[in-house]
Amino acid sequence: MASSFSINSITPRTTSKLRNYSFPAFKTTINFRGKKSSSNLICERSCRLGIVRASSTEVVDDHHGVADVDEGTKKVLRVGLICGGPSAERGISLNSARSVLDHIQGDDLHVSCYYIDNNLNAFAISTAQVYSNTPADFDFKLESLAQGFRSLTDFTEHLASSVDIVFPVIHGRFGEDGGIQELLERSNIPFVGTGSTQCEKAFDKYDASLELDRQGFVTVPNFLIQGSEMDESGLSKWFDQNLLDTKLGKVVVKPTRAGSSIGVSVAYGVTDSLIKANRIISEGIDDKVLIEIFLEGGSEFTAIVLDVGSGFDCQPVVLLPTEVELQSHGTVDVREKDAIFNYRRKYLPTRQVAYHTPPRFSMDVISKIREGASLLFQRLGLRDFARIDGWFLPPSSKASSSAGNKFGRTDSGSVIFTDINLISGMEQTSFLFQQASKVGFSHSNILRTIIQHACLRFPALLSHNIISSPSTRSKSSSVTEAFIKQRKKVYVIFGGDTSERQVSLMSGTNVWLNLRASDDLEVTPCLLAPATSYSDVSNFANHEVDKKSKTVWTLPYSLLLRHTTEEVLDACLEAIEPNRAALTSHLRNQVMDDLTRGLRKHSWFNGFDISDELPKKFSLDQWVKLAKESQVTVFIAVHGGIGEDGTLQSLLEDEAVPYTGPGVMASKTCMDKVATSLALQHLTDSGVLTINKDVKKKEDLLKMSISDFWHDLRSKLHCDTVCVKPARDGCSTGVARLCCEGDLTFYVNALQDCLPRIPPNSLSKAHGMIEMPNPPPDLLIFEPFVETDEIVVASKSRNENAHNLLWKGDSRWVEVTVGVVGKRGSMRSLTPSVTVKESGDILSLEEKFQGGTGINLTPPPSSIMSSAALGRCKKHIELIANTLQLEGFSRIDAFVHADTGEVLIIEVNTVPGMTPSTVLIHQALSEQPPLYPQQFFRKLLDLASERSM
């Protein structure tokens, strides 16, 4: 299969996509130290990374050990997972790769991981690196951690001899525009997804719009701006033709080749449109910009299409589409009055967007969406799977009334398709998994089905029959029943009322997905339902009634895959509403029938593995008693509130139900940041320091003279700059740096007005978006802002190393976050992570929890902290954990002196974030041997069970 293909030898006719990229001619491999020969060292590094040499008869995996490639009639399918790329969505690509890796690994399928950096350099990376929060986490370490290929030619030659099929999960440029596909095609390397020519045509929004028009579909009127030519006259005429006001007419400005959400904005009038188009071009996002009319009154939707045909015989089935509803809660920023489904709304767990699967459209509209998406998939020559986005417009809209007799017209309005996504996002709660679970596919089942379908196109791979759903492997019914009865029952609880309830949902979902991979566990996700409304915050105390009367829902698989707790709750209520439930069931059966007609032809398909169940509602008291009766162990993932203040722990202890994390008293102490400081203040001589604090009630603060309070605060704390944070909330909301009286005034007004968030750069010092607690906290802490030296991860392409870590180290203090694990009295520190802020001085919600942003250096680089100082730091962290009587696991945030290892405590989180990109995962992977997410969460669960014995 190896090829002598060279980039330089491609004729102009065959480089329509490749000409757009600057391929590196030479990429230095790894700088090795020591006296071993470079060839031996490369072999050693290759083995550790799970890279297979052409002559090898086995795959060495740093995750699962050794897997035989050919074991009699059983053959292991070797999959090359490629992520990264040059687009702004490379962080999301890493999230997708991590999710795919979690769900396709098995005895019959081996995964090797690869990464393309921003400059199109290719690397073989370890599976551990895939769990990094962002590419920036390891970009600067690639030369020492990964095998670099000297060119993309070398890379494809390696793939040709080392993997059976490639699964590209590069979003945007080079991943969806045909770039990576053409490289693979030229070397005859099998891959999942659509071919290069078809990708190129479908990815470009302008070209796709022209093709849709030729195919007879309704399209959105648009105007193309290319290069530096700002055709103001032509654009003005276009505005007039579409009855838009040239001064204030509302349009959408988007790059044509930057994915589905990067650089998209709303503009008003010709001048504003040209300004925003020029910004896209000048920032290097794209040199082609599309201006479209704003689809007023429309509803956005997205639909996953799955090909279930044989070989090149296309048989697309459209799953249950999802309606995308943009929402606003509380005071709406004027800049959000004409909101669009942008990058932030798509990838952050905020209440700015809600999804409805199936959509709340009439049956004829849903049928038209499914029919149209299927036709598009076929006519555009797409393969395996894709996501197609569009709009449903009521009859009264301008675009709908001008649709004529084109495809998309219904009695209820018009269906317009706008975006084709060749490699749909594959994060844990992405549209792919939301829609697939609605029709019976688990994460593993849908991904393996897609991979196996791609194999049908390649004769050499027909002998590979991976199991589409490993969880349904054949066992005799009697063995299966006996096995199910013996399985240990686990409840994973998340949600609640705090400002971190959305992060709690992410944590709970991640824990549930990882634990359910264990055959001996029966894991049920449970939502601690949020309060129905905080519209009248003054009455919030009414919600603080008997905690036992709070509501808990046990959830079926498909209802959990949402972005917010409110969405999950709404989905539960919808599921038990008779009319909605009947519609969903009808559509589900319809889609499953369509799928079955195609999939039953394939011997490798093992059936659907997600049943159509209803959620169940309990009071918290009933739920705890049920946990006791069923001998359940509870995994607590409720951040803040009753999940961290000892309340939930106390309820479970009263019924002798084992649970994860610290006990009642430790939870109470750590939830109160003032109490935490008091409990540790006697450790000063042992190298553990605390920060002076001033605590104020919100109601008192609102009555004070801001000027007088600011003066008194600076005098009392002996500082010029102050940090404000809720006293008894989580670690990521409402935290701000106040540099002057004006900052304090703005913050107090935000509390008084119940702002859901403080927009970026509203205070005197630059900062990112500050999510505010909802409802506002009763108690606030003011403390000196601890100044640390900025750490910069710089990318350089001239003269020096490719990536550099810059740190002046003047103050010698750095901020770290550290996980601690173990039993009470013998807690052990994991490897600390140095936190690097990307914007401002306070880590934002995104930087803490959302994959694709934020940088964590694990372990701290030796250029910042010596191994001796790091050792002392870990000892101090363990002293803190054992003094506070922590157990199970927790996370400690602190400032550390880079030379002495002294620790200045910030706070302790007894239910830390457990999202797919949390630093706890990075730190567990730094253990020897590494603890992968499934192993790590299982260890935490086992600690809970051992404590109850």
TrEMBL record:
Pfam families the record matches: Dala_Dala_lig_C (PF07478), Dala_Dala_lig_N (PF01820)
SUPFAM superfamilies: Glutathione synthetase ATP-binding domain-like, PreATP-grasp domain
GO molecular function: ATP binding; D-alanine-D-alanine ligase activity; metal ion binding
Protein name: ATP-grasp domain-containing protein
Residues covered by the ATP-grasp domain: 210-452, 880-945
Keywords: ATP-binding, Cell shape, Cell wall biogenesis/degradation, Ligase, Nucleotide-binding, Peptidoglycan synthesis
Matching PROSITE patterns: ATP_GRASP, DALA_DALA_LIGASE_1, DALA_DALA_LIGASE_2
